[in-house]
Specification:
The chain has 162 residues and is α+β, with helices and mostly antiparallel strands. Strands 1-2-3-4-5-7-6 form a seven-stranded mixed beta sheet. This is N-acetyltransferase.
Amino acid sequence: MLIREATTEDWPAIWPFFHAIVAAGETFTYPLDLGEENARSWWLLEAPNRTVVAVDGDGTILGTAKMNNNHMGNGSHIASASYMVDPEHSGQGVGRALCEYTLEWARASGFRAMQFNAVVETNVHAVKLYRLLGFEVLGTLPEGFNHPEHGFVGLHIMYCRL
């Protein structure tokens, strides 16, 4: 697996799984009916922030991540990131590789920590992965997310010192 900078030419391969994940309403706080134009501008970030894709040996996009400063001004030393793995390629280490990549990017870019603002507590695979990579749950907003299957569940704020 190779992780490389995403380009606008990658968007047609990202959009189908991006759209399916967002429309499912299980893991992101994005509007369920998020349109393609807004999605592209929200996901494909400009420098100094970054968006990357994980590709296999044939160039198939397996997943994507965006990484950015979490806050501006005097809080701009804290990074954040978001990840989407094509469900057809889940369980193959794509999410872990992307998360490790974003942590290294944040360290190399001089960030002091990485914070995730809204990790849905029922997204147990993501929570487990983040904990394995050094994140801790700082707090949970009770009933902060309306999950389509589980109803109102908590949103974790997760943090990792770099």
